[in-house]
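Two folds, back to back.
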Amino acid sequence: MLSPIQLYKRAYYGLSLNSWYLSLVMLINRSGTMVIPFMTLYCTQQLHFSIAQAGWIMGIFGLGSISGAFLGGRLTDKYGFYDVQVFALFSGGVLFILLGFQHTFLTLGIFTFILSLCNEAFRPANSTAIAYHSSGENKTRSYSLNRLAVNLGWAFGGAIGGFLASFNYHLLFWVDGCTNILAAVFLLKLLPRSGFTKTVHKTDISNIPSSAYRDGVYLVFILLATLFATCFFQMFTIQPLFYKTEWHLNEQFIGFLMALNGILIAFIEMVIVYNLEGKRHPLKYISLGIFITGVAFLLLNVLVPGKFSAITVMVLITIGEIISMPFMNAFWIVRTSEHNRGQYAALYSMSWSTAQILAPTVGSQIILYNHFSMLWWIMALMCGISSIGFVFLYRFVLSPKS
């Protein structure tokens, strides 16, 4: 029986130094993630937009993210992951600051699109960089380490963001922008350009689909992932508004909930992934995690409104996230080679960006014509469909026809 200390040592053992550097850059970047979680509140509370308008702003952000992910993947395969990451971080930092000066629906929408276009190009480049700096034995843990950095930064940013929002929403834009720029500086210092600016090398690709867009199994995977992500993003878009307007929780506590998500992931995800990795097919874990997330959304209509209920829901969503998301990366990365990894990473990023459009726009429209309770029933149902879909995909993948 291993002690907790031994478990943590084994969970982190064998990861490359550059993987740690990439995670540190991500930690700095995500520590300033404050604008997006509070955007619906900012639009409705500060700019006095309607819920539908706030939903459209978040949808515009998602539309820009899709374009940015596609562009980032193409640029990564053509020019390499290094320059794409640096450009995305610097440009995103400047644009976050400029976004804070936009006060009309039109200008806020325009700047939101440009920001998300530049900012989202970072994702496929970063995913490709993680794969480049990891081995076949520790790729899943390398991605989990990166997610740990994301969520630890999210925990810090969410907590500080809730505190800053209670005083002045405009501070969120400055902090988010400055941390983006600081992350770019650290990337340049810790991982200077040294021969890995181009990700394409000669490799045996006979057993790998030539294009992500012609990989039928992967396209089904992307469809199911998008369905799940549309539900998951409610946590960052509509759910804070629900807690504020329906359960009457304040910004500080909403920030604490966001921080709790990140803290739990930071403390337990690597150990869980270490213990699960290689024991079952990734699609089995994905299906289970999505099912747990669906149960969490269902409980929003069942539990008595209050802080304890909100914490319970967040814990369940976090557990579902921990079990599903690292193994999503594990699934797609083994289907790639260095010549097309940017495509696969881009398509995966695009699925989540598509969900960023669908989550607030669909969610806000359901609320507008019905009520929050209907939204949570629908989200629970969608998670159930996605979970079952991954079970069927698992059986298909393991069949000789796959």
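---
second:
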Amino acid sequence: MSAREWLDKDFYAELGVSSTASADEIKKAYRKLARENHPDANPGNARAEAKFKAVSEAYGVLSDSDKRKQYDEARKLFGSGGFGGGQGGFGGFGGPGGGFDLGDLFGGAQGGSGGLGDLFGGLFGNRRPGPTTANRPRRGADVETEVRIDFAEAVRGATVPLRLSSPVSCPTCHGSGAKPGTRPRACATCSGSGLVTRNQGAFAFSEPCPDCRGRGQLIDDPCPDCRGEGVSTRSRTLTVRIPAGVSDGQRIRLAGQGEPGRQGATAGDLYVVVHVSSHRVFGRSGDDLTITVPVTFPELALGTTLTVPTLDGKVSLKVPAGTGSGRTFRVRGKGVGKKDGSSGDLLVTLQVAVPSKLDEKAAEALADYAKATADHDPRRDLNELLGR
């Protein structure tokens, strides 16, 4: 469709809104008209189908802020009459002696640039790319892989081997795609740009060159190993350093270890997603390790010294008499390693273990204890608060 035909359209009128309508008003009007004229709701109704296409076309321009701005600027420039030949239009300029060339106005008929063809190219999605867009150096794609480590490795840090099968720059041709001793040549069809341009009225359409497939180069003698692609797939083993304190799901970036770049550009990065297996004894809270240690009632009531396991061995923990069940003690420096070389702590929570069964002797001892402490009511404060 030519620019003349585009500007003869009044997209605001198609949607039944003013030129100052907000984005929400435009969306609301479009939805209403699209619903009313949808082909599914009007089978066999050619008029409704044409209206549906028209409002969809109008909404496609007016819903895009950039396209709407360019459309409004074009309408101001040419007047609301467009090219139709009415007052304010351009019909009179095309007659004999008018001396007005519409192709000169749009700057595209001669393959030029800088005219209104650039404006309409942006409006209708046909802006001509630069001459080196297709074959410019392009950074390689990033690659992601996964690795699983155990709980202790996450706390202390570890070095793990990682085997990958991924694209790499061909070692035979060093990424050029040409047989060693030869080199690619510039494509004559696109002059090395990778793009060919064809004009259609006021518009210029650019597309990948069919001869070089958008590369801008032709390879007469392809590399026998990569068949001219410049990239080959091979298996490689990397040694990955997992830092101390890594958490489950954390991504580690290895710069330059992703896919190779194009035209000599830098390679992408490799991201390693770390999965940490759980531990049957220890948990984790930030930089601290956690552990729950079962104890007996006498140990809490009378006090004791416990031997508590850590990831590095064992430590002694003094429990004062009268300690309540659920109390947490902090053992310094026995937690997760930090970046500064220090470590978090080990949080030890004591929990009374209640026997599921008691023999007769133990039951009698507990009965005697209950009698001896009958005056002590552990729920006295609670009952007072409840007014009982």
